[in-house]
Amino acid sequence: MTTIAKTNIQDLLNFIDASPSPWHVVATSAERLSNSGFKALNESKAWALDTGGRYFVTRGGSSVIAFTIGQNALPASGFNMVGAHTDSPGLRLKPHAAYSSDGLIRIGVEVYGWPILATFADRDLSIAGRVNIRTALGFETKLIKFEKPVLRLPNLAIHMNREVNDKGLKFNKQTELPLLFSETVDDVEADTQFLEKIATLLTVEVKDIINFELNVFDTQKGVIWGANQEFIANSQLDNLASCHAALSALLANEKPKNTAICALFDHEEVGSESATGASGSFLADIVERISLHLNKEEKLRTLANSFFISADMAHAFHPNHAGSYEPCHHVHINKGPVIKTNANQRYATNATSAARFITLCEQAGVPYQQYAHRTDLGCGSTIGPIVASRLGVSSVDVGSPMWAMHSIRESAGVLDHAYMIQVLTSYYS
Q1: Residue 96 belongs to what H/E stretch?
Q2: Same domain, 210 and 247
Q3: Is 224 within the bounds of a domain?
Q4: Is residue 223 part of a domain?
Q5: From residue 278, how far is each of 282, 316, 399 by CA, in Å?
Q6: Which three-class secondary structure string do you get for 305-340?
Q7: What count of Cα atoms within 13 Å lies in the side-chain half-sphere of residue 425?
Q8: CATH no. for residue 183?
Q9: DSSP of 109-125, one letter per residue?
Q10: Dist. CA 258–CA 260, nearest whole Å
Q11: 356 CB contacts (<8 Å, ≥6 apart)?
């Protein structure tokens, strides 16, 4: 492991551990951007953008777009764009989450996206997200994170589920996913007991809590593992590894020649159809405001010369399940970024955009791989086709290879993350 790769990977693990919810991802990203000289902009205010200026905008607290105004004229150079997503599949708390049952307080949850539910069992779980608090002027939003485990989903003993090893661990989403929180306290409603814990952590009164958006996260920290320390394990590698790589590449380029954009969206795991998702207007609005000084034809030329890299994790070959992969498209951990292709446009890649990314890899001295899904299995999708269709720009779907995608504990390669940062840094420069 090179020194740079080791530094990058530890920074990634720290980034993920500090970001147990989409709102924390944006807060962590905004802090890094501010510390690197990026100026925060407000969508509701007028903007004054300067050549060489570095800026970022957040929307809804869970999406952020950062950009640097390049030296080259937009119509001739276009935008160099990278996109990823801040959300990960998992469990979200219901608005009235806490209820009493048989001397215990349980927390009701909804399934967000498509997590591997069995991996949530017997883990040290906790709660993170945002809470709205009443103030004299209305309300304010506070981020919250319980550092210690406060939730658990205990397995049913094998003596009562004797076929679990043959038929797999399955949960009824309504009746078997509620999480254990605490023992009940006499004469105190479960909801009140739950809100008291939130109020104490935020140093507010229970009566001042309006509502919340909270998700469940695994408190186990990310680790580097393997006989040669060549792998990593953590939650949310899909897709915070891509967020971190894109952000790191943008921060590494203080004065790019072309205007560079890093867009991190919420709600990819549930279809992106929201004001903060890639299917919303966020990126188009930022592109429009950056190019307000251009006439209509110049704006169209700018988009025609732009390029979008959709960065989302890829499926690494798992030798224990060889039959689940397309035979001629095995991709391997620590062998470089993966270019993802699907004839039905589940990915935005075409021959031209793939060739452009291959050229970028070659120029950066980075190996690359190509992936296609088994034809008889359903293929996931990304923000790539969405952005490509909304903006009409050439786009490619890429990602670092990983194992156990959508597990609460995913694995990937140390070198692959360094490779991704390296090629994106070269692209932005």
Answers
A1: strand 90-101
A2: no
A3: no
A4: no
A5: 7, 25, 17
A6: CCEEEEECCEECCCHHHHHHCCCCCCCCCCCCCEEE
A7: 18
A8: 2.30.250.10
A9: EEEES---GGGGTT--E
A10: 6
A11: 307, 394, 396
Tokens read off for 256: 């790019």
Count of structural domains within the chain:
2
Nearest residue to 25 via CA among 305, 292, 262, 374: 262
Residue 369 three-state SS:
strand
pTM for this prediction: 0.97
User: What is the pLDDT, as a whole number, of residue 1?
Assistant: 61
Residue 58 is assigned to a structural domain of this protein: yes
Residue 265 and residue 171 in one domain: no
Tokens of 347: 């990915």
DSSP 151-186: BB-PPPPGGG-TTHHHH-----TTTT-PEEEEE--T
Domain closes at, from 218, 250, 275: 218
Q: How far apart are CA 312 and CA 332, in angstroms?
A: 16
Amino acid present at 4 = I
Residues 184/100, Cβ–Cβ less than 8 Å: yes
Report pLDDT for 255.
85
Q: Which residue type does 189 have?
A: E
Q: How far is residue 353's CA from residue 296's CA, in Å, rounded to a whole number? A: 25
Spans of the chain below 50 pLDDT: none
Query: Nearest Cα to 177, choosing from 97, 238, 243?
Result: 97
Q: Which strands, in side-by-side order, build the sheet including 410-413?
A: 223-225, 231-234, 410-413, 401-403, 314-315
Residues 301 and 409 in one domain: yes
Residue 286, Ramachandran bin (φ over 0: left; ψ between -120 and 50: alpha; else beta): alpha
Q: Are 243 and 210 within one domain?
A: no
Q: How far is CA 101 from CA 92, 183, 189, 196, 245, in A?
A: 20, 9, 11, 19, 45
What is the chain's Cα-based Rg? 22
**CA 361 to CA 369: how far, in whole Å?**
10
Specify the CATH number for the domain of residue 390: 3.40.630.10
Q: Are the C-beta atoms of residues 314 and 340 closer than 8 Å to each other?
A: yes
Q: How far apart are CA 172 and CA 188, in angstroms?
A: 29
Sheet containing strand 338-340, edge to edge, reads 39-41, 54-59, 63-68, 259-265, 79-85, 307-311, 394-399, 338-340, 369-371
Q: Note whether 210 and 257 are same-domain residues.
A: no
Domain limit, last residue, from 218, 243, 273: 218
Cβ within 8 Å of residue 365, ≥6 positions away: 422
The residue segments making up the domain with residue 96 are 90-218
